[in-house]
């Protein structure tokens, strides 16, 4: 048995990946609610589908504002030219499943925040390239148990859609993610 976490998919990567997803950069806003005040606010995210097994992202609004990260991920084509799913595990123990709707320019996500990640949003900020931030994030995964999660289902509107890094910093193709 391979060591965990392991990323397995038995669905071959659809040939439209290069056209639809590879090197795609999206900036999008969730119409969300401030968890403390319960007032509406925008949560801005920036996602770069870096390669066939890595994403790079930054969070510019909401409780996780100030988080700069990259992850190992898996992709599944739901409908070529229309819908793609991207899934990953954070070093904090948070699980993310994101669906990119190309035609409607929407992002739909389920984020299963670990207790440590959600309840310690400020500790989850920083840049993974900074060893101190990365080590602190890993400790967040140790808080609570697997069922102690905040399950957040949200939908976002894509504001910008282009190819390339934009303001995000590239990573090595085999960058350590957990």
From TrEMBL:
SUPFAM superfamilies: Lipocalins (SSF50814). One of its GO terms (molecular function) is carboxy-lyase activity. Gene3D superfamilies: 2.40.128.20. This is Phenol acid carboxylase. It comes from the Eukaryota. Transmembrane segments: none annotated. InterPro entries: Calycin, PA_de_COase.
